[in-house]
Write a structure and sequence with these properties.
346 residues, alpha/beta, four-stranded antiparallel β-sheet, 10 strands, globular
């Protein structure tokens, strides 16, 4: 980690940077070459998609890692002490996924200083990802209204506090510099009127997760009959279990009676399908909705179990390891998906 480097290099003294540049020139050139190869291949892939009418959605996490070039090269934009370590860190309070909240550990932005230079760092960050993808899903959108700040010495996220975020000013400044941004607002979690207003005032589509729809009756906003058009609807995201795994997942903070009740409601809502076909009922309900976009994780399209789940929030081991075999997308799967597209005009 850069905080463990010699103080002169850690603090970016000019002579230390010059010496490191000279000493590490071979490694730097190798890294540049690797990046050249990546961007060449990525741009070719993106063009291949565009030639076939496919657009790419890229995920932009709201925070960056402490041990990153971003923080090392811009320490004044983060809440850090004199040694470069965070004084407060990001997370969320206790929720569906964890009784002690999620302690992410990312350093938190000094929004006042970012505003002072017209959000230049953020503008370049968004400009950079838009050079690689066509639509940006802005993760943890609610933090632009208010974010959960936890003292860095805490071991859980329980003892944090809500702090006002940059609000509408941020989007006004960035829009003035970049124009209209093709953005999806990840508005999951504890959503307040302020967050809703921020999304609506900017005209961004929010998200709906069908796995979250069955715990509060027919008024739940994630049920398809309550959708609005300007919405991106998912069976689940990378943070959810697969639909098949969801039927037996016991890792949420809900008690057994609650999970049993919501699963029974899901079955009734979806027309009492056999459990082995529930993933197909999820997909059909989403395709039949008025949401402008529907996204189905490939694991749900294939009806795979919880062992193929991509990520368990608040954990660092065993995530993002599953890979799809090249033969998994059979002609039968393609035909079923084509039938849904044709039936519902998607």
């Amino acid at each position: 980690a850069w905080v463990e480097w010699p103080a002169a290099l850690r603090d970016r003294h000019a002579d230390a940077l010059a010496a490191a540049t000279d000493q590490l020139q071979h490694q730097v050139r190798l890294e540049r070459f690797a990046q050249f190869l990546f961007f060449t291949q990525w741009n070719n892939l993106r063009q291949y998609c565009h030639d076939r009418g496919v657009r790419i959605i890229g995920d932009l996490p709201i925070y960056v890692a402490h041990d990153s070039a971003d923080v090392w090269s811009n320490p004044d934009l983060f809440f850090l002490d004199h040694t470069g370590n965070p004084t407060v860190v990001a997370g969320v309070p206790p929720d569906y996924f964890s009784e002690t909240g999620q302690l992410w550990g990312n350093p938190i932005y000094r929004w006042d200083r970012m505003l002072a230079n017209d959000y230049a760092w953020w503008t370049e960050r968004i400009r950079g990802i838009l050079s690689m993808v066509d639509i940006v899903r802005l993760d943890h959108f609610r933090a632009f209204d208010a974010y959960w700040s936890v003292p860095a010495h805490e071991e859980t996220a329980v003892n944090g506090e809500w702090v006002p975020g940059p609000g509408q000013t941020f989007f006004d400044v960035v829009r003035d510099k970049l124009g209209s941004i093709p953005l999806i607002a990840e508005d999951l979690g504890l959503i307040t009127d302020g967050v809703i207003k921020l999304i609506e005032d900017n005209g961004y589509p929010g998200m709906a997760i069908l796995e979250f729809a069955f715990d509060s009756g027919p008024s739940n906003k994630f049920l398809p009959h309550n959708y609005v058009r300007n919405l991106v609807a998912y069976s689940g995201t990378h943070d959810n279990d697969t639909v098949v795994g969801w039927l037996s997942d016991n890792r949420s903070t809900q008690d057994e009676a609650t999970t049993s009740r919501l699963r029974d409601y899901a079955r009734r809502y979806l027309g009492e399908p056999e459990d082995s076909l529930l993933h197909k009922a999820f997909i059909r309900a989403l395709y039949a909705s008025i949401a402008n976009q529907v996204i189905i994780p490939i694991q749900d399209l294939l009806g795979l179990g919880g062992e193929t789940r991509m990520n368990v929030p608040g954990t660092v081991e065993g995530n993002w390891e599953w890979r799809m075999h090249e033969t998994a997308l059979s002609a039968d799967v393609a035909a079923e998906l084509a039938e849904l597209v044709d039936t519902f005009g998607r």
